[in-house]
């Protein structure tokens, strides 16, 4: 049986002016190195799918690849630009912002970019709290912790976000009339909370009736054709299973 | 006159108008945050570094909380030269906004990505520190701190010393000028150096971590930043932070 090729692309060595010029390319192709679960790779995969670019996954052999990555952690994304330059992108939140910036998901100006980051940060806080309190809880405590979370942490954040979305015109967007990283991040967090409900826990308090504005954001993001197509793939189902298995849900 | 607790009225206008107003580097700022470092430290550092005129609002959280965009602090109110008041929220969003405004975010999309990369890697370190050391019961702290220093901090140091040398060991993470990455890492080190359990010793110094130390010194060489760090308020915040977490 032949060994899987686990070699990594070699990033182009050049100064940042040259790399900055190459990075302007919007018809790049991408390779992502991340494990077989959603984890810290989920939003990056979502953004690659959403943007409609050509992308593929690299096989993981962490023991041999670890020392070849910039921070000895994943995800890492290798971008091949239209002029053949290979750029190495690391740290999930940096990658997410880079892709959003490049594919017009960062707002129209510095003020809108700030608003995108506000909502991203707020949603990320919820995701981190969920990760610590529920994913991080001992299995026999999970139902209790989840129920507490749904009642003590979520409602206030939901109310704040519902109000912001209503103020923006109840159009399924956080900023203006078009999708930004804020929408995609929030949709991702809601999906994660819905997906990782411990068996026997209460209903996660998101629905078209309970959280109409957030539900609109979620539906709009998930209706985006290239993202919808990604979510129907076998690989996506594998990642679902890998996630539940990894965290014992 | 003592600082006010009254929050400024935020200008309502289209994002184009606000973005235009936001371009100026001659704005003044008001910061709403509690009297410790916490999630306000890097914001305060950036305001000081920028050389902009800024002041702190007095906190009356029960009254002010519902008036803030996410019911959390910090919030920063920017008063532009044209008379608009912009409301900035969420610490890392505020930090990036200030970095963009004051040319601390790199010269292009690639450099910006590099800045973000080091920022987030440092954020990972400080979160681990908060969880394992600050979050430990006081009697377990020396042990937890020593574990953190040898298992987590040591790895961070090795990776970052290497990256900094690859960038020319010039006291900067990206190119040859200060960026948010430098300021974030300097603040991260400051936090770890401030919250040391009695009996523990942080393996960070000019001798042990020369390239990282250079980053710290480079940031501290900016006069407005140095003046802030030497000032009475910064010392108060140090003391309050230690007291709050029982260090």
From TrEMBL, chain A:
<dbReference type="InterPro" id="IPR036282">
    <property type="entry name" value="Glutathione-S-Trfase_C_sf"/>
</dbReference>
<dbReference type="GO" id="GO:0006749">
    <property type="term" value="P:glutathione metabolic process"/>
</dbReference>
<feature type="domain" description="GST C-terminal">
    <location>
        <begin position="109"/>
        <end position="239"/>
    </location>
</feature>
<dbReference type="GO" id="GO:0004364">
    <property type="term" value="F:glutathione transferase activity"/>
</dbReference>
<dbReference type="InterPro" id="IPR036249">
    <property type="entry name" value="Thioredoxin-like_sf"/>
</dbReference>
<dbReference type="InterPro" id="IPR004046">
    <property type="entry name" value="GST_C"/>
</dbReference>
<dbReference type="InterPro" id="IPR040079">
    <property type="entry name" value="Glutathione_S-Trfase"/>
</dbReference>
<dbReference type="InterPro" id="IPR004045">
    <property type="entry name" value="Glutathione_S-Trfase_N"/>
</dbReference>
<dbReference type="Pfam" id="PF14497">
    <property type="entry name" value="GST_C_3"/>
</dbReference>
<dbReference type="InterPro" id="IPR050213">
    <property type="entry name" value="GST_superfamily"/>
</dbReference>
<protein>
    <recommendedName>
        <fullName>glutathione transferase</fullName>
        <ecNumber>2.5.1.18</ecNumber>
    </recommendedName>
</protein>
<feature type="domain" description="GST N-terminal">
    <location>
        <begin position="28"/>
        <end position="107"/>
    </location>
</feature>
<dbReference type="InterPro" id="IPR010987">
    <property type="entry name" value="Glutathione-S-Trfase_C-like"/>
</dbReference>
<keyword id="KW-0808">Transferase</keyword>
UniProtKB/TrEMBL annotation, chain B:
<dbReference type="InterPro" id="IPR010987">
    <property type="entry name" value="Glutathione-S-Trfase_C-like"/>
</dbReference>
<dbReference type="InterPro" id="IPR050213">
    <property type="entry name" value="GST_superfamily"/>
</dbReference>
<dbReference type="GO" id="GO:0006749">
    <property type="term" value="P:glutathione metabolic process"/>
</dbReference>
<dbReference type="InterPro" id="IPR036282">
    <property type="entry name" value="Glutathione-S-Trfase_C_sf"/>
</dbReference>
<dbReference type="InterPro" id="IPR036249">
    <property type="entry name" value="Thioredoxin-like_sf"/>
</dbReference>
<dbReference type="GO" id="GO:0004364">
    <property type="term" value="F:glutathione transferase activity"/>
</dbReference>
<dbReference type="Pfam" id="PF14497">
    <property type="entry name" value="GST_C_3"/>
</dbReference>
<feature type="domain" description="GST N-terminal">
    <location>
        <begin position="27"/>
        <end position="106"/>
    </location>
</feature>
<dbReference type="InterPro" id="IPR004045">
    <property type="entry name" value="Glutathione_S-Trfase_N"/>
</dbReference>
<protein>
    <recommendedName>
        <fullName>Glutathione S-transferase</fullName>
    </recommendedName>
</protein>
<dbReference type="InterPro" id="IPR004046">
    <property type="entry name" value="GST_C"/>
</dbReference>
<dbReference type="InterPro" id="IPR040079">
    <property type="entry name" value="Glutathione_S-Trfase"/>
</dbReference>
<feature type="domain" description="GST C-terminal">
    <location>
        <begin position="108"/>
        <end position="237"/>
    </location>
</feature>
């Amino acid at each position: 049986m032949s060994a899987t090729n686990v070699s990594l692309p070699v990033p182009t060595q050049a100064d940042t002016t040259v790399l900055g010029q190459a990075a302007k390319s919007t018809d790049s192709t991408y390779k992502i190195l991340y494990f077989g679960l959603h984890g810290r790779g989920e939003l990056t995969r979502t953004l690659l799918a959403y943007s409609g670019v050509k992308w593929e996954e690299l096989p993981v052999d962490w023991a041999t690849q670890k020392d070849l990555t910039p921070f000895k952690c994943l995800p890492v994304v290798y971008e091949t630009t239209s002029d053949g330059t290979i750029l190495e992108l690391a740290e999930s939140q940096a990658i997410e912002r880079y892709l959003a910036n490049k594919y017009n998901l960062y707002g129209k100006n510095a003020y809108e970019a700030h608003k995108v980051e506000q909502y991203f940060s707020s949603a990320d806080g919820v995701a981190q709290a969920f990760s610590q309190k529920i994913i991080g809880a001992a299995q026999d405590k999970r139902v209790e912790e989840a129920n507490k979370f749904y009642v003590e942490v979520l409602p206030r954040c939901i109310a704040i976000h519902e109000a912001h979305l209503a103020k923006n015109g109840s159009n399924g967007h956080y900023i203006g009339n078009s999708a930004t990283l804020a929408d995609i991040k929030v949709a991702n967090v809601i999906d994660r909370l819905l997906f990782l409900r411990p068996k026997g826990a209460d209903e996660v308090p998101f629905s078209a009736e309970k959280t109409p504005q957030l539900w609109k954001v979620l539906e709009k993001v998930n209706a985006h054709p290239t993202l919808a197509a990604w979510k129907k793939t076998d690989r996506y189902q594998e990642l679902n299973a890998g996630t539940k298995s990894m965290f014992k849900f | 006159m003592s600082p006010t607790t009254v929050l400024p009225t935020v200008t309502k206008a289209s994002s184009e108008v606000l973005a235009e107003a936001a371009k100026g580097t001659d704005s003044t700022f008001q910061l709403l945050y509690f009297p410790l470092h916490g999630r306000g430290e890097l914001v305060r550092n950036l305001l000081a570094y920028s050389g902009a005129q800024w002041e702190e609002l007095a906190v009356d959280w029960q009254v002010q909380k519902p008036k803030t965009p996410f019911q959390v602090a910090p919030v920063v109110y920017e008063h532009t030269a044209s008379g608009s008041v912009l409301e900035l929220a969420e610490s890392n969003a505020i930090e990036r906004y200030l970095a963009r405004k004051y040319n601390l975010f790199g010269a292009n999309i690639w450099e910006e990505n590099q800045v973000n990369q080091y920022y987030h890697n440092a954020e990972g370190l400080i979160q681990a520190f908060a969880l394992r050391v600050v979050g430990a019961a006081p009697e377990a702290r020396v042990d937890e701190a020593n574990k953190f220093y040898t298992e987590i901090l040591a790895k961070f140091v090795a990776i970052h010393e290497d990256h900094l040398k690859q960038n020319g060991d010039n006291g900067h993470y990206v190119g040859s000028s200060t960026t948010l990455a430098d300021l974030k890492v300097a603040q991260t080190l400051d936090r770890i150096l401030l919250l040391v359990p009695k009996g523990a010793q942080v393996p960070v110094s000019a001798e042990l971590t020369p390239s990282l130390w250079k980053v710290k010194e480079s940031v501290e060489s900016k006069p407005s930043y140095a003046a802030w760090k030497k000032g009475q308020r910064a010392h108060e915040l140090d003391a309050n932070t230690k007291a709050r977490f029982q260090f």
